[in-house]
């Protein structure tokens, strides 16, 4: 009889089922990965919560593991290598894929890793993937941290969209895991980083991530405060990593001439904000967004983690065994947690 492996499927609102699938050996450019860790991202939380009704769904796109077997055409990986998975599929044929913006591919996130179930499927004992979806990680990096390559890569993409220059005043609004990564990355880019948060505990995390100045937005008006800190100019760059329309509006208000604003969060619901267009016009402001990571951003994130230039250790709230997956999801949807990592 064929060997089987387990895969977790979100079958309905707050319902998780475990299915058994037959284990196949890799062919050609395929790689069989024995999954070690998979983090619970907001996409999976929204589907579990019922905010996005996409059932059945094999969630889990922030996975890491070790190479178990490789197909005959695989050149870059060998058995035993530690890897992180980039599950954002891109067709390679569309306008955006061909112009170097594969994160904007017209068919992105249509992965079907486990036969007959849609979704990236990282909450599984094994994943059979094409070698190009895998990024080799350092042997001495914990696989728990390697699972955070994807969220870090998304932040690398955002940082790259902001063109930070040495000595720039960079504001990060919100110190969730994404805000925390933005702080560390902006410091690596040579910025003075100002973190805005309403939660004191998260401001302490911001400090540990390297933020130079902390603003508790409940106690002080951040727009006024940033004006004072910048001789009245406003920030050079603002990253809005918290999904509140008021904060998006504030991001624009606190940005100075020739400044850049990056809308990092996705908004649900997507309520519009008022925009003073003349401020954008006369100040030559650049308001942009950032979503997902290109292969290049992913490679950068894999290197930053492998070389220990980014420390994700404070951003893992709890490591939960696969057998307690429902508990892991309950923990992940608690807004107070950073990442919950599921161990296979
Ligand atoms: Zn993610
Ligand atoms: Zn494409």
UniProtKB/TrEMBL annotation:
<comment type="similarity">
    <text>Belongs to the zinc-containing alcohol dehydrogenase family.</text>
</comment>
<keyword id="KW-0862">Zinc</keyword>
<dbReference type="InterPro" id="IPR011032">
    <property type="entry name" value="GroES-like_sf"/>
</dbReference>
<dbReference type="InterPro" id="IPR050129">
    <property type="entry name" value="Zn_alcohol_dh"/>
</dbReference>
<dbReference type="InterPro" id="IPR036291">
    <property type="entry name" value="NAD(P)-bd_dom_sf"/>
</dbReference>
<feature type="domain" description="Alcohol dehydrogenase-like N-terminal">
    <location>
        <begin position="29"/>
        <end position="138"/>
    </location>
</feature>
<keyword id="KW-0560">Oxidoreductase</keyword>
<dbReference type="InterPro" id="IPR013149">
    <property type="entry name" value="ADH-like_C"/>
</dbReference>
<feature type="domain" description="Alcohol dehydrogenase-like C-terminal">
    <location>
        <begin position="179"/>
        <end position="306"/>
    </location>
</feature>
<dbReference type="InterPro" id="IPR002328">
    <property type="entry name" value="ADH_Zn_CS"/>
</dbReference>
<keyword id="KW-0479">Metal-binding</keyword>
<protein>
    <recommendedName>
        <fullName>Sorbitol dehydrogenase</fullName>
    </recommendedName>
</protein>
<dbReference type="Pfam" id="PF08240">
    <property type="entry name" value="ADH_N"/>
</dbReference>
<dbReference type="InterPro" id="IPR013154">
    <property type="entry name" value="ADH-like_N"/>
</dbReference>
<dbReference type="Pfam" id="PF00107">
    <property type="entry name" value="ADH_zinc_N"/>
</dbReference>
């Amino acid at each position: 009889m064929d060997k089987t492996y387990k895969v977790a499927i979100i079958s309905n609102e707050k319902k998780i089922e475990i299915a058994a699938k037959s284990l196949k050996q890799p062919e050609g450019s395929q790689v069989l990965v024995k999954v070690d860790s998979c983090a619970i991202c907001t996409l999976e939380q929204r589907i579990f919560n019922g905010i996005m009704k996409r059932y059945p769904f094999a969630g889990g796109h922030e996975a890491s593991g070790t190479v178990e077997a490789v197909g005959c055409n695989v050149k870059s990986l060998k058995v035993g290598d530690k890897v992180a998975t980039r599950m954002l599929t891109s067709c390679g044929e569309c306008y955006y894929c061909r112009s170097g913006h594969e994160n904007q591919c017209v068919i992105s996130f249509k992965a079907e890793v486990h036969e007959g179930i849609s979704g990236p499927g990282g909450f599984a004992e094994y994943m059979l993937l094409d070698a190009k979806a895998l990024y080799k990680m350092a042997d001495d990096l914990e696989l728990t941290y390697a699972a955070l390559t994807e969220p870090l890569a998304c932040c690398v993409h955002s940082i790259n969209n902001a063109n930070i220059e040495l000595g720039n005043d960079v504001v990060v609004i919100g110190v969730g895991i994404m805000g925390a990564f933005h702080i560390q990355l902006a410091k690596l880019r040579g910025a003075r980083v100002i973190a805005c948060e309403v939660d004191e505990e998260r401001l302490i995390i911001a400090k540990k991530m390297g933020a130079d100045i902390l603003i508790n937005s409940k106690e002080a008006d951040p727009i006024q405060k940033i004006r004072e800190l910048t001789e009245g100019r406003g920030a050079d760059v603002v990253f809005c990593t918290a999904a509140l329309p008021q904060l998006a509006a504030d991001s624009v208000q606190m940005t100075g001439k020739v400044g850049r604003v990056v809308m990092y969060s996705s908004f649900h619901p997507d309520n519009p904000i008022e925009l003073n267009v003349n401020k954008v016009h006369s100040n030559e402001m650049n308001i942009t967004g950032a979503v997902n990571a290109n292969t290049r951003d992913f490679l950068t994130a894999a290197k930053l983690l492998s070389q220990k230039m980014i420390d994700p250790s404070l951003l893992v709230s709890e490591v939960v065994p696969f057998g307690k997956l429902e508990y892991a999801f309950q923990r992940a949807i608690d807004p107070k947690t950073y990442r919950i990592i599921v161990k296979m």
